[in-house]
Structures are given as C-alpha cells and as structure tokens.
Amino acid sequence: MSGTIDERLQAAGVTLPEAAAPAANYVPYALFGNMLQTSGQLPLDAGKLVVSGKLGSRVSLEDGQRAARFCAINILAQAKAALGGDLGQVRRLLKLTVFVASDPYFTDQHKVANGASDFLVEILGDAGRHARSAVGVPALPLDAAVEIEALFEVA
C-alpha cells in the first residue's frame, strides 16, 4: 500500500473532523507509554448523529456498517488530536471494541463491525489489522446504533 495515511484518507474522500470534545467527565483519549486508548466514538458527522436506533428492527445491516465507518473516522480524528496532528506516529491498531445497539435476536454484530474494520485497514494498511470484539447491547448513548473504542500502538 502506497502513500501516507493522509493521502489514503484523501483518496477515500474522507476529511477528518475536529476531534469531538467529551460529553461528560472523561477524556477523549489517554496516552500511556506507546499506547493510545480512545474513548468510545459515536457515528457523528458534523456533530450530528448519523445512524440511531437498534440493529434488527429499524436499522439495516448496511446502515449499521455505515455507522461503524463514521465511528472509525472519529477514532482517527481522536488519534490525530492525541498525536499532535501526526497520524504517521500510528504503528499499529491493536484492538477495536465495537458496541452495537441490537434487538435481542440480532446476531450480525460482527458484520456491523466490518464497516469500521474494513475502513481502518483501507486507511492504515497492514498496521490497521487488529483484534476485535463485537458486542450487542440494549442501548447506547443518544440512541446511537454503534459505538467503538480503539487501542493503538504509537511511536
């Protein structure tokens, strides 16, 4: 894979937003040694929730994947803020934890999570291949369909 992360974002037609400020008493990310942990990111675009509701009823699998992609975009925005604007310091995405607001009988959380995983591998290349958990939950903040947190190894 050629090009920098910024070049791959541009090729994908993605402009990272300003990193969202926390909505309560927490920090949006924590750096410890060479590890960067993001807080959970919602599917926000220009500060507005893109996909709300539960998968399995009023939210389609495709909309869930789109929500996961927006969460991943916001994860990269937080990482960029944490790293002083330099995503080139990302060595590896180690793990994603994907929370999917789901009806009790919805069992495709892993397919929803692919919306984030596929995007992050597209943008980060091999450094974007990661371990992952995809968990169904009854509700998420603001009625978001998806929330994702990430753990990176950084320079």
Question: Can you characterise this structure?
Answer:
It is a single chain. The chain is an alpha+beta fold and 155 residues long. It has one domain (5-12, 29-154): 60s Ribosomal Protein L30, Chain: A (2-Layer Sandwich), CATH 3.30.1330. The chain is 29% helix and 26% strand. It is built from 3 helices and 7 strands. The strands form 2 sheets. The protein has a 5-stranded mixed β-sheet, with helices on one face. It has a two-stranded antiparallel sheet with strand order 3-4. Strand 1 and strand 2 form a beta hairpin. It is globular. The two termini are 20 Å apart. Residues 7-146 form the Endoribonuclease L-PSP/chorismate mutase-like domain.
Q: Any idea what the shape is?
A: globular
**Rounded mean pLDDT score:** 96
Mind describing the biggest β-sheet? 5 strands, mixed
For the secondary structure, the number of strands is 7
InterPro entries: Endoribo_LPSP/chorism_mut-like, RutC-like_sf
Organism: Plantimonas leprariae
Protein name: RidA family protein
Domain Endoribonuclease L-PSP/chorismate mutase-like: 7-146
Describe the structure using short key phrases.
single chain; 155 residues; alpha+beta; 60s Ribosomal Protein L30, Chain: A; two-stranded antiparallel sheet; 7 strands
Summarize the structure.
The chain has 155 residues and is of the alpha+beta class.
Secondary structure elements and pairings:
Layout: H1 5-11, E1 29-32, E2 35-38, E3 44-45, E4 48-49, H2 61-82, E5 90-101, H3 109-124, E6 131-137, E7 146-154
Parallel strand pairs: 5-6
Antiparallel strand pairs: 1-2, 2-7, 3-4, 5-7
Helix pairs in contact: 2-3
